[in-house]
Amino acid sequence: MIRKLLTRAAIFLAGIGFVAGSVLFALAYFTVDIPDPNAYVNSQSTIIQYSNGEEIGRVGTQNRQIVPLSKIPLNVRNAVLAAEDQNFYSNKAFSIRGIAQAVIDNIVKLGQGRGGSTITQQYAKTAFLTPERSIQRKIKELVISIKLENQLSKDQIFESYLNTIYFGRGSYGVMTASQQYFNRNVDQLTNSQAAVIASILRSPGLYDPMFKEGNAERLAARFEYVKNNMIEAGWLTDEEAAKMKMPKIAPRSTSGQLSGPKGHIIEAVQKELAKLGFSQDQLLVGGLVIKTTLDQKVQQAAVDAVNKFYPSKAPADLRIGLVGIRPGTGEVLALYGGRDYLERQLNDATQSITQAGSTFKSFALVAALEQGIPLASMWNGDSPQIFDDAGKPYEVSNYGNESWGQVSLMEATKRSINTIFVPLGIKVGPTNVVDVARRAGIPESVAMMPTPSIVLGTSSPHVIDVANAYATFAAQGIRSKPFLVTRVLGSNKGVLYEATPQTEEAFSREVMADLTYALKGTILGGTGAAALALGRPAAGKTGTSQSNASAWFSAYTPQIAASVAFFRDNATQSLNGIGGMTSLTGGSFPARIWTQFMKKALKGEPVLDFPAPSNIGGLEPVVMTSGGVQKPEE
């Protein structure tokens, strides 16, 4: 009697539970909306490219590259089905039998058995739900799974799943997983590699052999499980299976997307996109394609040049910035902001500042030429000299306190004579020197005081600012606004943004021709003689600040203008002694890096010269060739 009562009570409670569960499920079915599947699957990382379309890196919360099912080979599809849901194409959204078998299998195999979720459930859970463990979430998973099956074909669900599921190593989807584990695209995977990808899918932390000790054994067992299931389903012959051996798996990358110099590029591109109005959300999941101005060959030339001439036993706080710009357009062709973005997030090409030193003498020279002061004019180059600075004595010395006597402005430029350029700046007016610097491209954000010391580069611009100013000289007086982003494509390949160079005439061509003639002399036996090894026409200026706290070389050819700067975190700390040099000046390491950079960047490009000077005051023009210096023919 008691047993009958208990049985009836159990049946009654079960019935109550069934009814309650059915009501809860029905309520969920009519209240839970299925999110747009494409909104998740098509949200992918933003790709940043060189100007030639080659990839620089990606921005986004997920490293994923979407590929259509037709591009995913059968061996990969079958391996995943064998590992996760062998009967996917014949079963329903969820399988009660599969769940029950999974429970039994995991009890027998101590938690190492099969999973109970269908591929549809896994996709619903991955794409639309949080990882919380609760009855409510499970019900939502089942409801979304059913609705997915009603709205999408099996192929559509499987394609979305293969592009969405996490494979470890920060990769989502079979394409990026193939690249992460085997350094190849998904359509190049062998049967063995496909089985490994499918095996790791279940739990990357347990099966990736490079992740932790013991995973290799687990992967080997899972590999055999997948292989046997493929044989059982008729997707693999015994002969094919016998040839399958555990393939070599690529080591885990410890570098990351932002490691090395390219991290500074990716960050700089993001900052420019933000100024253009693109939100962070768009960059993270918008699937944008960003084409930059960066030339792959020129960028590699910059990295190689810095690496080649990076001083041995350099202090940890040595900073090097390099920027190359196309004259006349403002396109940034190369940007070197530091050795490793992950170690230091400050970009030494676009964010760090340091005293510009004698690179500012070019601005005084332009002001002089605009006022009709010729390069042949003679000046007193003795050292030291005392000048008036708003009623106060201002003592100026030359490098090494060397006295030069009476020399021309042309020679003063070649030798970078301080005791000539300070009085030159006073004569043309410090305010006019500042005006020239602004017109050339030094932005308003860089503080410049119109005092006699302005010509010695006491102001602290960014490397990109000085590079852009010298690009104005190279473009015969046409100033351009530097930019990195040329085009932004949306996920549907529509053009969301197209850059237009912003240019303006800042100086006359005649003044620029005379300036370039003088700056050629810096390289033809002057302080920038290291750049003579380039073997093609070039003009520029060295820059060394007081106490050798910074060292620059800024120069140009008709095709590229570039600036290289050396400095340390402490603006007053000297560079002397670095690289075994008693005095590290702009004509040493910076000029060597510039020359090496230009050699590779211009390899294969035509040799071009600058326009002839017009007002050199009796000085005889010189022609620069790979063989040295020649006087022009009469």
From TrEMBL:
The keyword Magnesium belongs to this UniProt entry's keyword annotation: no
Family stated for the protein in its record: In the C-terminal section; belongs to the transpeptidase family. In the N-terminal section; belongs to the glycosyltransferase 51 family.
Database matches in PANTHER family: BINDING PROTEIN TRANSPEPTIDASE, PUTATIVE-RELATED, PENICILLIN-BINDING PROTEIN 1A
The Glycosyl transferase family domain, residue ranges: 53-230
Origin: domain of life: Bacteria
Coiled coil: none
Occurrences of domain Penicillin-binding protein transpeptidase (ranges): 325-566
Keywords: Carboxypeptidase, Cell shape, Cell wall biogenesis/degradation, Glycosyltransferase, Hydrolase, Membrane, Multifunctional enzyme, Peptidoglycan synthesis, Protease, Transferase, Transmembrane, Transmembrane helix
Catalytic activity: Preferential cleavage: (Ac)2-L-Lys-D-Ala-|-D-Ala. Also transpeptidation of peptidyl-alanyl moieties that are N-acyl substituents of D-alanine; [GlcNAc-(1->4)-Mur2Ac(oyl-L-Ala-gamma-D-Glu-L-Lys-D-Ala-D-Ala)](n)-di-trans,octa-cis-undecaprenyl diphosphate + beta-D-GlcNAc-(1->4)-Mur2Ac(oyl-L-Ala-gamma-D-Glu-L-Lys-D-Ala-D-Ala)-di-trans,octa-cis-undecaprenyl diphosphate = [GlcNAc-(1->4)-Mur2Ac(oyl-L-Ala-gamma-D-Glu-L-Lys-D-Ala-D-Ala)](n+1)-di-trans,octa-cis-undecaprenyl diphosphate + di-trans,octa-cis-undecaprenyl diphosphate + H(+)
Transmembrane segments: 12-32
SUPFAM superfamilies: beta-lactamase/transpeptidase-like, Lysozyme-like
Single GO molecular function: serine-type D-Ala-D-Ala carboxypeptidase activity
Pfam families: Transgly, Transpeptidase
Protein's UniProt name: Penicillin-binding protein
Keyword Transmembrane helix carried by entry: yes
Classification of source organism: Bacteria, Bacillati, Actinomycetota, Actinomycetes, Actinomycetes incertae sedis
CC terms in the record's Gene Ontology section: outer membrane-bounded periplasmic space
GO biological process: cell wall organization; peptidoglycan biosynthetic process; proteolysis; regulation of cell shape
